[in-house]
Amino acid sequence: MCRWFAALAVLGAASLCSAQTVSMSGRLGDKALLMIDGSPRTVAVGTTVQGVKLVSISADGAMVELGGKRHTVPMGGTPVSLGAGGGGSDGGTRVVLTAGSGGHFMTTGAINGKAVEFMVDTGATTVALSAADAERIGLKYKDGQRGMASTAGGMVPVYRVNLTSVRVGEVTVYGVDATVVQAQMPFVLLGNSFLGRFQMTRVNDMLTLEKRP
After folding, report:
1. Comparing C-alpha atoms, which of 91, 139, 88 is closest to residue 113?
2. Are strands 48-49 and 39-44 parallel, antiparallel or unpaired?
3. Domain residue ranges of the chain, discontinuous segments joined by +
4. Distance, CA of 95 to CA of 103 (rounded, Å)
5. Which residues form the Peptidase A2 domain (predicted)?
6. b/e map 109-122, b = 16+ CB within 10 Å
7. Reduced to 3 states, what is the DSSP secondary structure of residue 66?
8. What's the pTM value of the predicted model, to 2 decimals?
9. What is the number of alpha carbons within 13 Å of residue 100 lying toward its C-beta?
């Protein structure tokens, strides 16, 4: 698998941290099983715990509110940072990623508003995703520039496209170059077309991304 990623020049992984973090591990009726700043809580819809209000829950996750701003917390996903960089859909400026098992940085996020799972690659030229993921999120990748790339499995077709938006945590970047690969990929790979918009600092197992002005 490492050979495959290197051949495409793309890699990485993460869980999010910030002033306050929330993740969701399950639900019990109208209650969500939340982890708030590392503390397990059972929270009913409409209830506020540690300043975090549970607005609604679904099979896919929960909507929570902090300081008048709402955030989506995916079921079983990495912790979502609340209140970092001003919150809001576009106002975030900082994401902190911590290495998971295997030393990789992985996180859930969104491309053009559709949920995906990312793996960070500081050596990648662009964001890279499989044709299957591109089709799932409704990306018309075949309108892009076609080319070929060498992988461990041989030469495969690729398409160069431009993504309307890429979101990680509370940070959204617009107009991001990407490569769609017609081969199986377990994750969407975050390359330098996204990472290059940030000042990156790594200390041990923690990677901090500060959005450039």
Report:
1. 139
2. unpaired
3. 1-19+85-213, 20-82
4. 18
5. 116-194
6. bbbeeebbbbbbbb
7. strand
8. 0.59
9. 16
20-82: CATH topology is SH3 type barrels. (2.30.30)
Q: How far apart are CA 25 and CA 34, in angstroms?
A: 6
Residue type for position 210: E
Going 151 to 154 to 160 to 163, the CA torsion angle's sign is negative
pLDDT in the model for residue 142:
93
Give me Rg for the CA atoms of the chain: 18
Token pair belonging to 211 = 């959005």
Fold of the domain built from segment(s) 1-19+85-213? Cathepsin D, subunit A; domain 1 (2.40.70)
In this chain, the answer to whether the domains covering 1-19+85-213 and 20-82 adopt an identical fold is: no
What are 156-191's pLDDT values in tens digits?
A: 899 999 999 999 988 889 999 999 999 889 999 999
Residue 92: count of CB within 10 angstroms of its CB: 21
Contact 35, 77 (CB under 8 A): no
Q: What is the pLDDT of residue 11?
A: 32
Q: How many Cα atoms occupy the beta-carbon half-sphere of 75 within 13 Å?
A: 11
CA dihedral 143, 147, 152, 153 (to 10 degrees): 70
